[in-house]
Each structure stands twice: as structure tokens, then as C-alpha cells.
Amino acid sequence: MDNITIIAVTSIITAGFTTGIGTMMPAIGEGRAVSKALDSIAQQPDAAPTITRTLFVGLAMIESTAIYCFVLSMILIFANPFWNHFLG
């Protein structure tokens, strides 16, 4: 197996794990955050605007983590810097 094939296989496997873990864990985190926020709103309805605002900021942060993992996996597949090292 030559170096190009090793880089390709490693990049594809790493991109798969990155996408898999990067989408699974934020989904679990978002589900837990929404669940806890709804529990809190049910216990204290007067604090609903504050809890909702904090929830949306937290969900945006969690979602940005998932997008970051997706972008990282796309870079590994389509713009891997190691390709140029061995091809050039």
C-alpha cells in the first residue's frame, strides 16, 4: 500500500468518525438542553423568557460544534493538506 492510499484511507475513516461523533453528541446535548429547559419553564413559568433566551444561546453553541465537525470532515476529504505533500 503506497502513501497516497494510506492518506486516503486515514482521511476517510477520520472524516467518518468526525461526522458520526460530531453529529451524535450535539444531538444528545440539544435534546437534554431542551428537556431541562422545558422542565424549568414548567416549574417557573415567570422565568420563561430568560430560560428561553439562554436555551437558544446554548443551542446555537451546540449547533456550531456540529457544524465545525462537519466542516472539518469536509476539509479532510476534499482539501487535505497532506495530499499536496505527497503529490507535489
Structural description of this entry:
This protein has about 90 residues and is mostly helical. It contains three helices and no strands. Helix 1 (about 5-45) packs antiparallel against helix 2. The longest helix has about 40 residues, at about 5-45.
Task: Explain briefly what this protein structure is.
It holds the Pfam family ATP-synt_C. Helix content is 90%, strand content 0%.
- Please provide the count of β strands: 0
- Overall pLDDT score: 91
From the structure provided, what is the oligomeric state, counting identical versus distinct chains? single chain
Q: Runs with pLDDT <50, length 5+?
A: none
What is the number of helical segments per DSSP (H or I, 4+ residues)? 3
> Which radius of gyration do the C-alpha atoms yield?
20 Å
Give me the secondary-structure category: mainly alpha
Largest sheet, in brief, is: none
The global form is: rod-shaped
Strand content: under 5%
| Portion of residues within helices | over 70%
Order of helices and strands: HHH
**Termini separation (Å)?**
19 Å
InterPro entries: Alt_ATP_synth_F0_Csu (IPR017708), ATP_synth_csu_bac/chlpt (IPR005953), ATP_synth_F0_csu (IPR000454), ATPase_proteolipid_c-like_dom (IPR002379), F/V-ATP_Csub_sf (IPR035921)
Membrane topology: Multi-pass membrane protein
Protein name: ATP synthase subunit c
Function: Key component of the F(0) channel; it plays a direct role in translocation across the membrane. A homomeric c-ring of between 10-14 subunits forms the central stalk rotor element with the F(1) delta and epsilon subunits.
